[in-house]
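Schema walk-through. Below, the input block comes first and the output block second. Nothing else is stored per chain. Lengths vary across the set, and this one has 160 residues.
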Amino acid sequence: MSKNSIFLIILLTAIWIILRETLTIMTVVTGVVVGGCCVFLARRIIPLEKTERVSIFRLVIYLFFLLGQIYVGGIATIRLILFGANVEIVKIKTKIRTSLLQTVLVNSITLVPGSIALDLSKNVITVLWLTKKSEEPPDPGRADAVLKDKLERMLLKAQR
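--- output ---
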C-alpha cells in the first residue's frame, strides 16, 4: 500500500468523522473500512500509473486554493456582467504533462466563473472566456495569466 493510499484513507476517515459528528471507536473503524474500500475500488477503476506521479496531499491543498479562486472569479464576473463584457475564445498551452492533472486543470478552469474549457488536445486548452469590453485587440498572454497561471502553478507542485 502506497503513501498516497494511506493518506487518502486517513483523509476519508476524517471526512467521515466530521460528517457523522461523533468521535467513537465505531465511527473511526467504520471510516477506515469504508475509506479503504473506496481507495481499493478507485485503484481498480483508475489505473495506478495515472495517479502514482501525483501528490494527493498537494491536491487537497489545491482544492482549498481552487475554492478561493472560485470566489474571486465570481466577484470579477459580476463586475464584468454589470459593466459590459466581451466573449472570446482563446487557446492556452499548459506545462502539465500527466493526463490526470491536465483534466483537473481543465475542470478547474470551467469551475471558475467567467470561463468554460471547450477542448483539451495534447497540451492546448481551448477556453471560452468573458473579458472586459474594450477597443484593444485581445492579448493572448493575458489569457494565460488570468485563466490558468495560478491554477497551473499549484498543480505543477502536485506533479512528481
